[in-house]
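Checklist before submission:
- one chain only
- standard amino acids only
- sequence pasted in full

Submission:
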Amino acid sequence: MTTEIPPTPGVLLAGGLARRMGGGDKPMRTIGGRTILERVIARLSPQCDGLILNANGDPARFAAFGLPVLADDVPGFPGPLAGILAALDWAAANRPEAEWVLSTATDCPFLPRNLVARLHQERAAGNAQLAVAASGGQTHPVIGLWHVGLREELRHALVKEDIRRIDRWTARYRPATVDWPAEPLDPFFNANTVEDIAEAERLAALDGD
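Returned file contents:
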């Protein structure tokens, strides 16, 4: 079955505090001479109908990438759900024709080149309001498709119910789960530590990128 891909802006979630990397912006670490953020943008630009960056603090540090930078709508660094909510609000205000937003972490340098297409295919097949990626027996709920129409329900969950875990919220909607093979390279490998950066250098050679 071939599913037509609707307009899908992408939000790159860079709002984390990178404690395991000693602080700073994880996506600005380099692999093979390019920042992780550059690699994420290169993977997603051909798939998405425009990209935006969710980051807190001074947006000027990302100026070189030429992307709109959105801070969280909800104060107190409540996690990725706040960044997703900010993106859904942005899409409703700026891209009214877009019913879906893709979210992804910015510490995953090897994202699949068919990420958006496969997520849409599976959510359409299951008539789901959400779709999340998986690999190696593990789901990656920060990487997925979100229906813009869920934004008020998400706002209520964050502000009134103090929900922080993505999978706790997505479980309410039975999202479509889309699995990718983890060999020879897990496309959702994430660089969380200094050791992971060294491993990513090796994997980049495997990936030919």
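Reviewer check: The CA atoms of residues 130 and 172 lie 10 Å apart.
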